[in-house]
Amino acid sequence: MRLHLRTLSTWDHQPALPSEIADVWLTIDEQGVRVRMDAPFAGDPVPPAPPGRLHGLWEFEVVELMIAGADDHYVELECGPAGHWLFLQLAGVRNIVNAHAPIECSTRHSGDRWSASVWLPNALLPSPPWRVNAFAIHGQGSARRYLAWRPAGGDRPDFHVLDVFESVTDR
Fold first, then answer.
1. 158 in a domain, yes or no?
2. For residue range 28-59, what is the model confidence (pLDDT) as tens digits?
3. CB-hemisphere CA count at 13 Å for 1?
4. Rounded to 5, what percent of the chain is helix, strand, coil?
5. Based on the structure, what is the number of domains in the chain?
6. pLDDT digits 0-9 by tens, 129-155
7. Reduced to 3 states, what is the DSSP secondary structure of residue 170?
8. CA distance 146 to 11
9. Enclosing domain of residue 91
10. Tell me, what CATH number does 38's domain have?
11. What is this structure's pTM?
12. Percentage of the chain surpassing pLDDT 90?
């Protein structure tokens, strides 16, 4: 099964600018999920750390994918254009149970765009059935932009509203 998620809206249901839309593709098979992300390079400052796993990556330019299971267990995958990534396993909203899963994130640049590729084996994923959502963040200060495939709305950006995630079986 293959899914294509596009961040066409801001977190509060406003249309995204065509120049800032990020794409996330999931290829799902019986062994896991291959994730590919493609986004415009916004040119934000890179994190002050070498490429690799970085807690707090959401404070920088990033594309995110979340996969939720049947029991409020979910994973959060974040990739940034400078080779930084973060993979979290959560049990309940924002309750991190593992931040050190062994994954590899490959990042490439092509012109004014960047892409990332990650393999997530079933052992790292929540139990199905799955629900998914994708996000992109870029900009700084008052120009910070929070984009979503399925926006949650609310008073402020919140990507952990599992009720707005869309079922994989609906596609």
1. no
2. 999 999 999 999 999 999 999 999 999 999 99
3. 12
4. 10, 45, 45
5. 1
6. 999 999 999 999 999 999 999 999 999
7. helix
8. 6
9. 2-148
10. 2.60.40.1190
11. 0.96
12. 96
Cα 161 to the center of its chain, rounded Å? 14
E strands, the chain, where?
2-6, 9-10, 23-29, 32-40, 52-53, 62-68, 73-79, 84-91, 96-98, 105-110, 113-121, 131-138, 145-148, 166-167
Q: Is residue 138 part of a domain?
A: yes
Q: β-strands 23-29, 84-91: how paired?
A: unpaired
Q: Which of 35, 42, 67, 63 is nearest to 133 (CA)?
A: 67
- For the record, the structure tokens of 170 come out as 């609906």
Instruction: Report residue 58 as tokens.
Output: 């959401």
Closest CA to 74 of 124, 25, 108: 124
Domain presence at residue 157: no
Alpha carbon separation from 13 to 66, 137, 139, 156 (Å, rounded): 19, 15, 18, 12
